[in-house]
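Tokenised fold entry reproduced for everyone:
>
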Amino acid sequence: MSLRPVSRRLTMAALSLLVALLVAAPAAHAAPPQVVHEQTIRFETETLETVCGDTAVFDRSGKTTFTFVGMSEDVFLWTAVNRGTYTVTFQDPSLGVVEGRWVDSETVHATPGGAFTFSFVINERSGEVRIHGTMTFVVSADGTIRVQNETFDFSGCPST
């Protein structure tokens, strides 16, 4: 498969976005956007079932970075990025203790007219186990979900 058609489509999409931003720019300057930026340190302990089916205690520590940009009451964008490390202590002592790390991000974009797009991506690594997931959906102004895509994949579970 050639990357040239994909590259061309991405270039056209970027140019379309640039034109849309330039056309909307005069309206955006009418009032400065509201911007909120926060960082939070997280410490959590909970008992969960792992993707491999084993029960364990997860001790997590990490940071959440949150940014909100509000252009008007109905038009906004926010992102949240969570990243950190954790220790997994299995209830079955023969499985031991495993260190892990994770990164996930969420983005919500509300557009003029009431539609919004939600996107979530997670990447996680715990010992030999790798986890990757994505979720995207677009909701129209009347609340109808127009697009919904989800993937979830993991590998590296020990054979039982």
Q: What stands out?
A: Residues 1-30 form one domain. The CA atoms of residues 5 and 11 lie 10 Å apart.
